[in-house]
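Appendix B. One record, verbatim.
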Amino acid sequence: MEELSPRAKAKRRQITDAARTLFLAQGFSRTTMDAITAEAGVSKQTLYAYFPSKIDLLIAILAEVEGTLPDPPELVAPTTRAELRTALLVFAESVTGTLLQSQMIAVLRLVVGEAVRLPEVRSMLVEALPIALLNRTAALLRAAAGNGVLTLDHPEISVRLFVGGVMSYVMFGGLLSNEPPVRPKPESLQWLVDAYLRTLDFTDDR
């Protein structure tokens, strides 16, 4: 895909910000492209040049959610169990801190609701959240394994154990809660990480 100019990026963001505001205020189905045009202050021609449909807009908003997740930790290559613990803890704190915000939870609820009936959104949701988090965790564990810190017998299962534990806070403390989002206490995430580490096959006690 051709790289957008700074001006085009700003215009695109102007449109997605307007769409997000309307989607959250009145729902996806009740929001028209005309309303988005007016809210964004652009012409119809400009709107459709960037986003041919509302679904494209919703997918773009979801992509922005993925962009806020912690950077892939493949550059982190733990050489000891302690370094791996620190990396996992920082990752868990970053994920929960990013996703457990009122605006973020509102967007996720919107997307999850539409994903039930829109296959395009459903597949993008899977890629943007669970797959992205699983891949980031796998990169970290592979880096540690590459340094001889541990042995990964079933990495696909191992990463699910960690990501599932972290995302349970997002689900129960945010998406499915009737109260404002609540971030887990630091000691809770520390206990989760330590419990997870006990499931791994370390080569020594470094």
